[in-house]
Specification:
The protein is an all-beta fold. It is 0% helix and 54% strand.
C-alpha cells in the first residue's frame, strides 16, 4: 500500500509505504530519489506488516523496489505505474 499526504504549505509529500509479507524478516525500499545504494528500512509491526514514512518532493516521480530478506526484489502492487529497468525487469513508479 502506498498512501500519499500532501501539505498546502510544504514542497514535499509524506508517503507511507506498507507491505504485509508472511515470511519476511526484513524489508527495505530502494530507488527513491534515484538512490539504489542507501535503502529505507521498513519497521516491522506486531501484526507482521512492514511500514515506513518518507518525505518526497512534490511534482516528482520515483522508481523503486522492495528488497525482502536482503535477497528478493518485489514490486508494489498498488504503484502508480511500472517502468522497465536496465536488468530486464520492472520497477514500481510513484508519481507525486
Amino acid at each position: 500500500m502506498v498512501q500519499k499526504t500532501y501539505f498546502k504549505t510544504k514542497d514535499y509529500c509524506k508517503v507511507k509505504f506498507a507491505l504485509n509479507l508472511e515470511d519476511a524478516e526484513t524489508v527495505e525500499i530502494l530507488g527513491l530519489n534515484s538512490d539504489w545504494e542507501n535503502s529505507v528500512v521498513m519497521s516491522k509491526k506486531k501484526d507482521g506488516t512492514f511500514s515506513a514514512d518518507v518525505s518526497l518532493p512534490k511534482n516528482s516521480q520515483h522508481e523503486f523496489k522492495y528488497r525482502v530478506n536482503e535477497t528478493e526484489w518485489i514490486n508494489e502492487p498498488e504503484a502508480d505505474s511500472q517502468h522497465h529497468n536496465e536488468f530486464g525487469g520492472v520497477n514500481s513508479v510513484i508519481v507525486l
